[in-house]
Amino acid sequence: MKKKTMTKPGSSLIGRAPGRTPPADGTQSQSGLTFIETIIVVAIIMIFATAVTVVLVTVMGTTKEAAAKNQIGTFDQALQLYNLQCGSFPTAEQGLAALRKKPTLEPVPEGWRGPYISGDVPKDPWGHEYKYVVPGPEGDPFGIISYGADGLEGGDGDNKDITSWH
């Protein structure tokens, strides 16, 4: 003999969670998350958000370093062209600004056909001026330096120096 399930007229067992019985008074029950379930969901979201933040901070640091290396590479190419046309590299006093406007400080280059870069000389990705040194280290005719996030010589991580001589 099969057991007959009794339901009130107009009610249905379809869509009810297994093991749950309808309230005795015939009203619909409100299902939702318990306090513990809510705490667990919030904890999972916080862990996920923390992981994403750590990854973004790491990527942003690497992106700024890559941007500084690219800018230094652009300066290097512009300086090479300047040297070909003018017969020498800008002096330390003339600086990287000589790539944008013809220097007025001696020695004034006769063959200047710039500008060799578009726009003003940009700052590094951390908002600091690039340092242009003549002569450069390791026997190079010039050197270009970004002192990283802290703007000071030396350092590790985001504060490390980025140079044209690697």
Quick take:
This protein is mostly helical. Helix content is 31%, strand content 5%.
Structure characterization notes:
The protein is mainly α. The protein has a domain at 65-163: 2-Layer Sandwich (Glycoprotein, Type 4 Pilin). It is 31% helix and 5% strand. The protein is built from one helix and three strands. It has a three-stranded antiparallel sheet, with helices on one face.
What is the strand and helix layout of this fold?
Blueprint: H1 35-86, E1 131-133, E2 143-146, E3 162-163
Antiparallel strand pairs: 1-2, 2-3
Largest sheet: 3 strands, antiparallel
CATH topology of the domain at 65-163: Glycoprotein, Type 4 Pilin
Strand-pairing-aware structural class? mainly alpha
Beta-strand content estimate: 5-15%
Termini separation: 87 Å
- Contiguous runs where pLDDT drops below 50 for at least 5 residues: none
Q: Helices and strands, in N-to-C order? A: HEEE
Helix percentage range: 25-40%
Average pLDDT reading: 83
Relevant CATH superfamily of the domain at 65-163:
Glycoprotein, Type 4 Pilin
How would you describe the shape?
rod-shaped
